[in-house]
Amino acid sequence: MLSTNRPANKADNEQTSSVSDLLDRPVANRARPRALIVAVAAAFAPTLLAPATAQAASAKKPKKAKATTITVGSDETLTLTETTTATELAIEEGGVITVDDGYSLTLTVNGVETGSELAALTDGYGGVATAIAAGTYTGTIVLNVAEATDVAYSTLTFPFRQAIYVDADGVDEDKSVPSGVLDGTVTDSEASDITLLSNGEAFNGVYVAGGSYTLTDPTIAFDGNGRCDFVGYGAAVVGTGSGTTLVLDGANISNVGVVRTAVIADATANVIVKNSTITCADGVVPAEYPAAGTGDTKYMITVPWMLGISGNVRATNLLGASTKATYINSSVSSEKWGALSVDGGSYCTLTAINSTIANTGGQGYGSYAIGNVTEHFLGCTFDVGDYALIHWGASAHYGDSTKDAVSDLNDSLSLGLTSAELDDLPVQSTTIDAGRFMVMWYAAGSVAIDGGTQVSTGETAFMCKAVAGTVTVDGSDGATITTGNGVLFQLMDTDRPSSVTVSGKPWSSETTGTYTEPTGSPTKSSSWSPTTSQSTDAKGTFTDIALTGDFYNSVWGGGNASLQGQNLTLSFTRTTVEGVISASTAKHSVSTITKTEYREISEVTNTPSAVVNNGVLVTLGESSTWTVTGTSYLSALTLASTASITAPSDRTVTLTVDGTETTITPGQSYTGALTLTVS
Q1: C-beta of residue 396 within 8 angstroms of C-beta of residue 342
Q2: Residue 657 CB partners (closer than 8 Å, separation 6+)
Q3: What's the pTM value of the predicted model, to 2 decimals?
Q4: pLDDT tens for residues 475-516?
Q5: 443 contacts: CB under 8 Å, gap ≥ 6
């Protein structure tokens, strides 16, 4: 049975003789704290682990005690030193139930964690602690006293409470809340068919911090706010620490609440989710949270609006160094914000195979990539509000779940898929349906699209904010790109407002910055060459594909935002392109963007215009054709001997180089002020 096994102190011994009386009578209103020692509590505490010699045995339920009532008056503090069971608990406003330092307190009623209420964010400690809210609770009541699980993050320490705590030695009963485990079997190596329910705040389900552990067919439903998804405080499942492997197979996780994340992978752990359904929906943001939000990750509980989206819960988060998270034959959805996130980590690996990634509330992203992460998406279906990917420095691949590709990942990522599981996974192509953009780059990094991947966007396919974003598309196996607004690639200045440093508040910054559209015309930089390829260029490489749409580079340069210039370099091989490829001037529909206009982020229209610091370098490779549909301004053009430039039917295209009309000849290269016009 679960017991803290602590020796009673002198004050404890003086009160144990009247335990039954204390439980059954109302507590008198007294200002001084008192300690309630329940000598019989151990008899009611459930056993978390199934016997080692009988792995299939179900976890025991608390034994039924006689009717007992605990009342805590409005000016009273009740200190518990042992797990306590009752059938009615009444806490008047101002009444407090507490435990000694080094311990945590969790209330369950009929097996459901309840009553936990987070402190205010402005309490001076990050609002990380929970208290049991005033009210009357009836049913099978267990006040669980467990050893503390303190998890540090930056300058804060989060007092985790969890139904099941696992380390390298197996389940640690002293850190667990066994009365919060309904049904199923729990052993040192696995838990099966368990149900975890919570309508309190910041309660965790399963916390695995060492060794290998498997959750088979768990049902987890949490309704109430979490507090920090950069550490997993309030998450359904956390796998963390060196040497940790956590497998979820057949999980059904449904959470509602601010940063009440479903799955957290952290600190080099390997988390594998198979055959599972994960959904997360927004909660109600605490009133003391800054209206514009904060980018201070200790306090950030809403998505930064400067990404052009809203929401307050992401379904998953991948953290730490070299951590791995993989989703196989699963469905992962968030209402808004994000479904699959990598944030606050470095050199992590995020993988999804034959899975569905979605936003159900019309806004959000499929995945977020930062910190040199590698992301694999094979045979997946994306149905996302805004972006398939927000790119802050990573390598991402979208392709087919071929047998060889999946087998390679099974080996390299230690996924542990059996031969039968590998055989049962069908080969699928990836399908992406993004409400606005396929990718938005805020930092240099690559995206590869191949196999039969089908990309469909409501607006621009590839949105790059003045960084060296690179996309490679291989259409030889049927990959396609279709855009809703006719723009395939937009290279532009960043329109992301910055955070503003604040003082006198728990958080260090607030996202109250404003973007202001530049006026006038760009000034040509004397140090920037728009006609030669640079390491800082944004690049697109397209092979064996038919493309319809435009490519624009509207970067000002000339010292604007410390950027002298930036080029867009495009290469096409055995590819047909129909559209405009040009330097441009891009404009928003509003001159300033604040939080109120957050949906205007990335929303621009282009006017083709002569190159200043925004070179456009085009290479038409083997057997490629560009059908020019409108005036296009380039700085360099190279044609293979089998390449051609044409105009739409019954029209002609003309090239001028530095103002001189020039014949377009296959096998030739041109540099300077290039203008292609259609008449």
Answers
A1: no
A2: 670, 671, 672, 673, 674
A3: 0.92
A4: 999 999 999 999 999 999 999 998 999 999 999 999 999 999
A5: 370, 391, 392, 393, 467
